[in-house]
Amino acid sequence: MDNPNTHPKLPTPSESSRRTFLHRAAGAVAGTGLVSGLSPWARVAHASGSDIIRIGLVGCGGRGSGAATQALRAEPNARLVAMADAFSDRLQKSLQSIQKQPDVARQIAVDKEHQFVGFDGYAQLIASDVDVVLLATPPHFRPMHLKACIDAGKHVFAEKPVAVDAPGVRSVLQTTEEARKKNLCIVSGLNTRYSPRFREFVRRIHAGAVGELVALHAVRYAGGVWVRPRQPDMTDMEYQMRNWYYFTWLSGDFNVEQFIHQMDMMAWLMQQYPTRCYATGGRQVRTGPDYGQIYDHFSTVFECENGVKLFTTTRHQRGCSSISNGVIMGDHGSASLSHRNLEISGVKPWKPSREPETDSHQLEHNDFFAALRNGNVINNGSYMAKSTLMAIMSRQSAYTGQTLTWEQMLNSKQDLSPKEYTWGAVPPDLSVALPGVTKFI
């Protein structure tokens, strides 16, 4: 399993210029998600005697705005110099929101010429001489945007999940390998992996604190997210883009877009990905047209090659209990986890300190920019792609009612992309999946 627990220390570059940073060959660091090598910057601006890191944001929703703010907080010499979004109003709202953060306001330098709107805005931003790109669009676009960034030699922060179908996952895995060859960073938005407290919890489980793992259970019950009403002048494409969460081709369904956090934690704890799964799910409450085609509940059993089983369940239904927790069962003890508590029981009990911890969303950016400064390369691409595939496998098993293997899912030919990216284009199929009727492709 790839793991960002350690960042191997390397010499810091002694000098920089507008166009070059010192380069050295990279070597793989066994057992981590990292590649070592001297900082491989393609472009580092030099201003007032300081190395200015030029950041571009693609995807200006709430998560994108948060990621940009956190990136600027992580690196005082960073500047947000370009932004791109499909919608101008979203871009402007995001820019205004970030400008209102007093601790980073001085680091914002996005002029009109570097505000890119439309489906091709990401390409214009990449070509605008940025060093680091933050990708926070709806997940459908992640594979193409990530590939374009790595092809252009940019370091990337990629929000989760990183695809909505198997062709997208395969693209990300290929791009990940290209990033390794080029010594380029790919930092994943699966932020729990950057929590020191959770890293220690995982380290203890891996060291045998509960013995050999037998079974795991993860639950995430919540009320759901926003709905944006359709306006009379909206095309189908614009309406779906505005309400991307509710369309499988854009979000991957809510278990892929949100529950991926829990699945990734469990895969990390198990140190493996499942060989097969069977799942159920459906729409009980979110049945109207405002909720597109996605489900509102899923329940999945994952089976691993060594006999370990993972049971997961999630729902988005308002008026119900909100629960988020997990249980790890071993042959010599057990452990539990939630947003607020971690605990190991049995022969090697443990509880973390009650000292408050920095938000792991911030910590992932702290590590990202520290790696760039210190000449390290983080590459989380493998686990972020495989955890995404794990979530897609759960969805497709529920959609079809079929037991699916990892190899079946990885080699699936179902491509959820539209034929073209224009406001007048016809979006992909809007039918709601019916188990036993919908076919696995």
Descriptive report:
With 441 residues, this protein is α/β, with parallel strands linked by helices. 31% of the residues lie in helices and 22% in strands. It contains 13 helices and 18 strands. The protein has helices at 62-74, 88-99, 121-126, 142-151, 166-182, 196-206, 236-242, 248-251, 254-257, 260-270, 360-374, 381-400, 406-410, and strands at residues 27-28, 34-36, 45-47, 50-58, 78-85, 115-117, 132-135, 155-158, 186-188, 213-222, 276-282, 297-303, 309-316, 323-330, 333-338, 342-346, 376-378, 404-405. It has an eight-stranded mixed beta sheet with strand order 16-15-14-10-13-12-11-18. Strands 3, 4, 5, 6, 7, 8 and 9 form a seven-stranded mixed beta sheet that branches. Strands 1-2-17 form a three-stranded antiparallel beta sheet. The longest helix is centred in the C-terminal third of the chain and has 20 residues, at 381-400. The radius of gyration is 22 Å and the shape is globular. The protein starts with 26 loop residues before the first strand and ends in a 31-residue tail after the last helix.
